[in-house]
Write a structure and sequence with these properties.
Blueprint lengths: L1 E5 L3 H12 L3 E5 L7 H6 L4 E3 L1 H7 L2 E4 L3 H10 L1 H4 L3 E4 L14 H9 L4 E5 L12 E2 L4 E2 L1 E5 L3 H13 L3 E4 L6 H18 L13
Helix pairs in contact: 4-6
This protein binds NADP nicotinamide-adenine-dinucleotide phosphate (NAP).
Length: 206
């Protein structure tokens, strides 16, 4: 499928490469598309365009922006984003100290009625995205996601499997509040316990 990825940083590049290897077509949305030629070499078949053009080219839009840029972006592009499946991967850290709302809920509010927002990939380190199987424990890593629409979650689950990960449905979008909180905890645990051979991942043992 056509996938729009807004942002051209670490997460954007790794997700794009993984999905492009699985046969998807990537449209990067950048503030400065003219100067992102390196991306085209890294990601076969990808296009780098403005955010507006990327959104209009794809039914699914991944917001791979810094957290503080996400809600303003969603408000600016609300009309274009309505009806699209929007995957918010951003991590609020201390910007939402009370965790009463998840970052992804704020994104849905910014888009307004008709928003189809899912939270995902928040607790997956960027440098594990092309290494879905943990090399130390030989286990496939999990990707947690949350959202309110069953059909939208099914689409995202298949895309997570296309990257080689195990999709873990964490329930409604409000559970993204917990996912937001798992990220600083994972960083803390990674600092304390990570193996020298790899980065940590949450894994549901079941
Ligand atoms: N790094 C991780 O391991 C990780 C893991 C899970 C989730 N996340 C989340 O994923 C999101 C992206 O993380 P990342 O590590 O890929 O970030 P990054 O490397 O800093 O990339 C962010 C991209 O967003 C675009 N952008 C648009 N508005 C921006 C602004 N006001 N300031 C800076 N960049 C802006 C830039 O692309 P253009 O210049 O092309 O517009 C930039 O390349 C973040 O919200 C982060 O919390 C990160």
């Amino acid at each position: 499928m056509n996938i729009a990825i807004i942002g051209t940083g670490r997460m954007a590049r790794q997700l794009a490469l993984g999905w492009s290897r699985a046969g998807h077509t990537i449209f990067f949305g950048s503030r400065d598309p003219a100067n992102k030629g390196d991306l085209l070499k890294q990601t076969p078949g990808a296009t780098v365009v403005t955010a507006e053009a990327a959104i209009s080219a794809a039914p699914l839009v991944v917001l791979a922006l810094p957290f503080t840029a996400v809600a303003p972006f969603a408000r600016d592009q609300a009309a274009a984003l309505r009806g699209k499946l929007v995957v918010d991967i951003s991590n609020p850290f201390d910007h939402l100290p009370d965790n009463r709302l998840a970052g992804a809920e704020l994104t849905a509010q910014a888009i307004g009625p008709g928003a189809r927002v899912l939270a995902a990939f928040k607790d997956n380190f960027w440098n594990t995205l092309l290494e879905p199987r943990d090399p130390v424990y030989n286990l496939v890593r999990d990707v947690h996601f949350a959202g309110d629409d069953v059909d939208d979650k099914q689409i995202l689950a298949l895309l997570i499997e296309d990257l080689g990960f195990r999709p873990i449905d964490c329930g409604p979008l409000k559970n993204a509040r917990i996912l937001d909180g798992m990220v600083p905890l994972m960083l803390e645990l990674d600092r304390r316990y990570a193996s020298s051979q790899g980065r940590s991942s949450w894994r549901l043992l079941n």
